[in-house]
Each structure stands twice: as structure tokens, then as C-alpha cells.
Amino acid sequence: EAGVVQSPRYKIIEKKQPVAFWCNPISGHNTLYWYLQNLGQGPELLIRYENEEAVDDSQLPKDRFSAERLKGVDSTLKIQPAELGDSAVYLCASSFSRQSEQFFGPGTRLTVL
Amino acid sequence: DQQVKQNSPSLSVQEGRISILNCDYTNSMFDYFLWYKKYPAEGPTFLISISSIKDKNEDGRFTVFLNKSAKHLSLHIVPSQPGDSAVYFCAASASSGTYKYIFGTGTRLKVLA
Fold first, then answer.
1. Are B7 and B26 spatial neighbours (Cβ–Cβ below 8 Å)?
2. How far B51 CA sits from the closest chain A CA (Å)?
3. Which of A58, A73, A86, B107 has minimal CB crowding within 10 Å?
4. What is the DSSP secondary structure assignment for residue A26, as one 8-state letter?
5. Chain B residue with the nearest C-alpha to that of A33
6. Are A37 and B103 in contact (CB under 8 A)?
């Protein structure tokens, strides 16, 4: 069974540029999560989707971050414009339901110069 | 406000000996706890979990203990193997809320051959 797929794995951009991350969850998983992981910290939830509905986006900085999950499968997380402090690993995870164990993808390491 | 704390950033153990990783939490609403293991350049992978109705859960070499009165949980690995060298995150969630995972900052375990 394929795991959670994320791309790109690494991204280097200059500040003020836009960037987008893509996630394909495990087939059949209705719940999708985007996490931010800073160096030396644990993952922090940015947004959670139940199918195509964003049900918890309280930690998403909405002035520059946006996300979508069209058709309740793949998801895209966008930052526009990127700031130096956005340099981090962005993790996508999925689960069958919100009560179920979460499976993580390998993450996208973003470096903003 | 760190609701889940892992106060030991790193731990070194000889191969074959016991590794004990600790985690403390502050929110009494948490009733489900998990441990994730993370290798470099990979996403966290689920290791073991425990519900608050139990005080111990065992899976092979891995055992998690929960002390609700002390708001403390620990992960025991016996015997430790070099392949166990990784960063270990504990996480907690509340079934009365959104099941959102709150992660600790991680403990880097190094098992010496």
C-alpha cells in the first residue's frame, strides 16, 4: 500500500516569492492534515480537512497561507508571499477518520533566502 | 504554552540495554497518547499508543506506561538496537474535542553498538 506522497521534497526560494506544496493521501483516508515542523520542535497542526471541508484551520496564518483539497483527495498548501520565518518542514498526514492513527508523508523542506 | 513536554532533548544507550523516554502533559482532558519515531529526511511513523483507560500497552520490544495522576507517560524499549536510533515524539489528544494531536519537542535516541 502506497503511503502519503508529498512533493517537492525540497524547495529553495527567495523571500516574497510564492510557493506551493502538494500532498496525495493514502487511498480511502478521509481526513488530511498539514503540519509545520520547525527545527527542534514537534509538528504543529496548520489545517485539517474532513473530505473537502476545512474543519480546523485556526493555526493557519490566513494572510499569506492558503490550502485547498479539491474533490476530497489531493491537497495543496500555498504560501504567498514567503517570509524568512517560513523556512521549515511542511508535513502532510492522513487518517481514515479523525479518531484514527495519522500516517505522515516525508515532508517538504522549505528554505526561504 | 507547551502542553506536551519532553524534557530530555537527547539520550544515549548501549545496545541491548533499556531505553526510557519520558513525556509530561498538562491538559487533563488528554485521553489518548501516542509515540512516533522519526528518521532523518522521513516523516514521523506511528510506534505505539495508549488510551487513558489503560496504564500499560506493550508491542514487542516497545512498552508505553501511563501515569494519569502524574500526567506522565514513558516509552520503554527493551532491548535497544542500533536501528532504534531516531527522534521520538510523544503526542496527546482529547476525544472530547477535535482529536487534534499535540506533539512534544522530541527526544533524540542514540543506541551505541
1. no
2. 12
3. A58
4. P
5. B100
6. no
Residue A70 φ/ψ, nearest 5 degrees: -70, 135
d(CA B113, CA A54): 47
**Can you give the pLDDT of all 113 residues of chain B as single tens digits?**
789 999 999 999 999 999 999 999 999 999 999 999 999 989 999 999 999 999 999 999 999 999 999 999 999 999 999 999 999 999 999 988 778 899 999 999 999 99
- Does the CB of B48 have a partner CB in chain A at under 8 Å? no
Q: What contacts B40, CB < 8 A, 6 or more positions away?
A: none
How far, in Å, CA of B20 to CA of B40, rounded?
Answer: 21
**Which three cell numbers mark B18?**
533499556
d(CA B108, CA B93): 22
List the single residue in A41, A45, A91 with the smallest CB-CB distance to B43.
A91
Residues of B in contact with A102 (CB under 8 A): 46, 101
What is the rounded distance in angstroms from the CA atom of residue B43 to the CA atom of residue A52?
A: 23
Amino acid making up residue B6: Q
From residue B23, alpha-carbon distances to A29, B8, B17, B20, B106 in Å are: 29, 9, 20, 10, 9
Question: How many other C-beta atoms can be found within 10 angstroms of the C-beta atom of residue A18?
Answer: 11
Q: Is the peptide bond before A8 cis (omega within 30 degrees of 0)?
A: yes
Q: Is A40 exposed, middle or buried (0-12, 13-18, 19+ CB in 10 A)?
A: exposed
Which residues in chain A have their CB less than 8 angstroms from residue B45's CB? Answer: 104
- Angstroms from B34 CA to nearest CA on chain A: 9
